[in-house]
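Table 4 source record.
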Amino acid sequence: MARRKYFILKETGGGKLRVDFRSWAFVIVIGLFLAILSMIDSGGSTKPASPAPATTCSFTVNADSVNVRTGATASSPSVQKLSRGQTVVATPTVTNGFRQLADGTWVLDNLLTPVPGSVCA
């Protein structure tokens, strides 16, 4: 008895029909199904997302080498060095000319330039 194929189905013993997972027709059907799903779920928005407003106080280092200190004085121990162009997240707090960084350390404020759009009230 010859086995027959019907699009994505094939006849097996006893006249039963089973899905032929190895056929090109099956691959095409699954591809079309996934394409339709992706068109239905188009990300929930038809317009591009606008950038979120800046909510951090960020600065760029404008000196070749900047000491990060444990306190807001030049005599406080240095714990790290920053290089020109590095970006740091800070707080609005400035004491004795030193700006407090987000991790609680301090950097000389005049060696930092605010990142455009940064919020440092």
